[in-house]
Amino acid sequence: MEVRDVNFSYNGTDAILKNVSFTIQKNKINTIVGPNGSGKSTLLEILARLLSPSSGDILLEGKSIFEWKAKEFAQNVAIVHQNNLLPSELTVKELLYFGRLPYKNWRMTRTKADDFAVERALEQTELTEKAEQFVDSLSGGERQRVFIATALVQDTPILLLDEPTTFLDMYFQLEILELVKRLNQEENLTIVMILHDLNQALAYSDQLIVMKNGEVVAKGEPGKLLTTELIAETYGVVAEVLDDAKTGKYIVPQRRKEF
């Protein structure tokens, strides 16, 4: 997937995205970071074809994503939103079958392929024992796994995640990030996700895309990219970047930068 000179604004007002260009690394975890209001979620919605850029384009297999038929695109790209509508009186398994809509014909009959995809997604997200429980009875971390599983049954090579750890405590944040890492390693999924925690981005990403004020200000390998200078310029925070035996680097925020 290649993002080429993407610009976006609502009704011609102030630009939300400005000449955004980068290549999403195939079969890798690509993480978008940046301050609030930098255009991260807007960019992800454009990648998912939920918004159209004012100018520029996004290519998938050399073809503009806006030229793909809707069903074909949904068989290649799935998204898990930050705020998901919580279904009432639906079991986990019932909800997952909705993820198979891109493969349905007008008769909407359930197939063996649907059953296999649902059972596999339940296993991948460790939800098999929760399959017959109502979604609204689950914990926050379990619900997030359900929404990821619903995207997985689309059986797409690309998965977009908008702040998948939001509203979760530390334990469930790590549970979700470990699931994302496992899906990438075992299923070769291409992941594009938004994170706020830079230490989590360091530990779980192959490529970072750093945004500020609607622009990409840096991109590359996390351990080499995040320096004290870049953090100060992007976030307005003085931070120390330390060496870590497991992640390579670790960031310790110290104070707000004095302007």
Automatic annotation (TrEMBL):
It is a peripheral membrane protein. GO terms for biological process: iron ion transport. One of its GO terms (cellular component) is plasma membrane. Keywords: ATP-binding, Cell membrane, Ion transport, Iron, Iron transport, Membrane, Nucleotide-binding, Transport. The keyword Ion transport applies. Residues 1-238 form the ABC transporter domain. GO terms for molecular function: ATP binding; ATP hydrolysis activity. Gene3D superfamilies: P-loop containing nucleotide triphosphate hydrolases (3.40.50.300). It holds the Pfam family ABC_tran. The keyword Nucleotide-binding applies. It is found in: Cell membrane. This is ABC transporter ATP-binding protein.
